[in-house]
Amino acid sequence: MPLSRVALESSAGAARGQADDIQNEANELLRIRDYLFKELAEKTGQPMEQVHKDLSRIKRFNAQEALDYGLIDRIVRPPRIKADAPQKEAGTCLG
Q1: Which of 6, 15, 25, 11 is nearest to 56 (CA)?
Q2: How many whole angstroms separate alpha carbon 95 and alpha carbon 92?
Q3: For 3-22, what is the mean pLDDT?
Q4: Secondary element (H or E) of residue 40
Q5: What is the Cα–Cα distance from 95 to 36, expressed in whole angstroms?
Q6: 5 and 67 in contact (C-beta within 8 Å)?
Q7: 75, 1 in Cβ contact below 8 A?
Q8: Predicted TM-score (pTM) of this structure
Q9: Which residues have a Cβ under 8 Å from the Cβ of 69 and sit 6 or more positions away?
Q10: Residue 5: what are its φ and ψ, rounded to 5°?
Q11: Fewer Cβ within 10 Å of end Cβ, the chain: N or C?
């Protein structure tokens, strides 16, 4: 939809425990991150460096930006309301 927003953010973890457990969790997060970045770069056509840059912080896209980036295939627009369509009275609900 035209007013939709898409947010991309990198994965994060909250590992606790012994140093080995934290290291294992960190390695797994890095493995998943690298896989997701690679897939995102391939599917969107963006260079890997751009994906890394965009996911270093939360990146938000409006519908057109998401389309341009390659995150979505198209923007779905509702059909136009005809000028002679009956109007609802003020104060009625949207449904």
Answers
A1: 11
A2: 8
A3: 80
A4: helix 19-44
A5: 39
A6: no
A7: yes
A8: 0.64
A9: 44, 46, 61
A10: -130, 145
A11: C
